[in-house]
């Protein structure tokens, strides 16, 4: 019998900020881009539960979050604190939490900086797994002063959905015979992979709950979504065979930046692309990935029209300079009439390395630092 737990830290970035800055406690806190009095660019990274009462959510444009916060303050609600975030601190806290979780399970998988899966099958019962989860929750509170929500189910899919069922500081246990009844009443958005566009498409076809999704036959879903329809068919039934494993590896690594002002200044755009390429290269090095073959750029114009372009090299690329050179080649047409005939200004660019090569890079491909121009092996992070 498989028993899987999903541990999800509650409003993690904002909670860490509150933990280390007592003046923030019991105040609405938003971590993300600078709102600049309603003129900022970018999005909300995390909002604590006090801010969520104002309607502020993760991934919301920071300007909308600022307006909602101002409206709440005019109603007499507490002022919202906007913070840029301290990602080094978040990573340090995350590492300590993962060190608490990992030894407690048969298998452990860090899904992101603030969530993890635990295989607790050897405990033999869901009751024992629930006791283990309560113990871990208490230990995290004692060590870090932070709460988490835990979902326990017969697979990763059900565990993840159930961890979000009672937040914050919740514990939800869904035994195998309860899975379908638990899922059926939930909105389709709880299914991992269903985002705003798919949700709208299904709503247009009268599908609002998991039960209604489950009533569709496999052929209908495949007709609508191709092979992904098969995945939806299984998820609507709470089926998943995905193992708990930390052997997952990223398929790509990228960075993007929203500019303070829309622009067509080529020197500025290319300078920011250079910085993004340097950051991506550093992340590749930290993850022990010596090379890549595909360079991809993203360009978003002021009217939010968004385009991606890619180029795949015949031989592995190993330097930040190569990543930057490839990005420039793809970006330049967006700065002239080839890809931008009406000369729209650019709002955002992204640079991404794909088709990652995990075998040791050949010695004939020395890594070159983009800033210093020196060759040789990088120092260990």
Structure at a glance:
With 381 residues, the chain is α+β, with helices and mostly antiparallel strands.
Description:
By secondary structure, the chain is an alpha+beta fold. Among the domains are: 28-79, MutS, DNA mismatch repair protein, domain I, CATH 3.40.1170; 252-357, Dna Ligase, domain 1 (2-Layer Sandwich), CATH 3.30.1490. The protein has 13 helices and twelve strands. It has helices spanning 12-20, 49-52, 62-74, 87-101, 126-144, 156-163, 179-184, 196-204, 210-214, 218-225, 228-235, 266-286, 320-331; strands spanning 4-9, 29-32, 44-47, 81-83, 107-112, 115-119, 148-153, 171-173, 252-263, 291-301, 306-317, 346-357. The strands form three sheets. It has a five-stranded mixed sheet with strand order 5-6-1-7-8. β5 (107-112) and β6 form a beta hairpin. α4 (87-101) packs antiparallel against α5 (126-144), α10 (218-225) packs across α11 and α12 runs antiparallel to α13. The radius of gyration is 23 Å and the shape is globular. The two termini are 41 Å apart. The relative contact order is 0.10. Residues 361-381 have low confidence and may be disordered.
